[in-house]
Amino acid sequence: MPNSAVSTNAFADLRPSLPPLPFLAAPGYAATDAWVAALQAAMPDERIVPFSALSPADQAAVTVAIVANPDPAELAACPNLVWLHSVWAGVERLLAEMQDSQVHIVRLIDPRLAATMAEAVLAWVLYLHRDMPRYLQQQKEQRWQSQVYRRAAQRKIGLLGLGALGEAAARSLQQAGFPVLGWSRTQKHLDGVDCYSGEAGLAAMLAQTDILVCLLPLTAATTGLINAQRLAMLPAGASLINFARGPIVVEQDLRTALDATHLQHAVLDVFAVEPLPPDSWQWTHPAVTVLPHCSAPTDKESAAQIVAGNVKRYREQGLLPAGVNRQQAY
Ligand code: NAP
């Protein structure tokens, strides 16, 4: 066969000899079988297997892997890995564990995930906007008292991060009538969103924000970003929602701002240590709502379809999906 015919069209002939496509997860991960089933259903022509089913020859042949908090030793056992597809959107742990490797890392970008996060942002913004923490407390005290109503149009929501999730959240908040501000590393131009970037832009946004929603990736630049100094830039009575990663917020600084009632309430889905240890102050603080990292769970079926599309383009056309930028670390 002439060389010119071998790239795309020879695929059908090569397919029987394709290496298996392993799903690598943390040892003891309870959802491995469910992931393998969802991925296999989305890719009937591939052989999806857990790492334990790979023979030494398979390990050497593997060029692509699908991962969910993989064991670094299992990744290292596949020396010819070209790229891997995470089924999570946040890949800070993978990047840290793979610092010395050249393997191309692809994270999950799934409109279904963005819609789930946008729904969570709207739900918890409304929870704060309609004073639900206060009414819960009043009920405990059997106190009958209505709070002053403020229209959505009078409550500014500041989004930290205007990526796949931030942009979807901005749209659902706008539809609900909230004015939306957003901050990103590079300057964005989103219809109807007051966009900011840079240090001065962050200060300008914080000064106007009533509810701050964190949807940033965890990187060296965002670790500890929400500290005492930046919390103090928020107007008195503002609230915080952290749906991104725990270490972006300095937990002790947050506690101080809540104790001083400078911040009214914090809805926290993510923590420096997860699961949140039983003796953590957040569990019992009256101005904190604790969520168990549940704001936007990956949908296995839709994620499997996204992964399948990326694998197909690679197998058939040799195309690598857009990956994480190792310099920016997201
Ligand atoms: P993304 O598409 O990469 O967007 C990240 C956004 O953050 C971009 O707008 C980016 O700016 C901005 N950014 C990054 N570094 C910055 C910096 N130093 N200063 C200012 N802005 C910065 O990510 P995504 O898909 O929206 O996901 C965001 C994060 O959500 C994930 O990394 C993950 O940690 C978290 N997450 C949490 C859950 C949960 O259940 N709690 C679920 C899924 C994801 P540019 O636009 O200029 O690049």
Automatic annotation (TrEMBL):
Transmembrane segments: none annotated. The keyword Translocase does not apply. One of its GO terms (molecular function) is oxidoreductase activity. The keyword Plastid does not apply. It comes from the Bacteria. Keywords: NAD, Oxidoreductase. SUPFAM superfamilies: NAD(P)-binding Rossmann-fold domains. Residues 123-295 form the D-isomer specific 2-hydroxyacid dehydrogenase NAD-binding domain. Signal peptide: none annotated. PANTHER family: 2-HACID_DH_C DOMAIN-CONTAINING PROTEIN, D-ISOMER SPECIFIC 2-HYDROXYACID DEHYDROGENASE NAD-BINDING DOMAIN-CONTAINING PROTEIN. This is Glyoxylate/hydroxypyruvate reductase A.
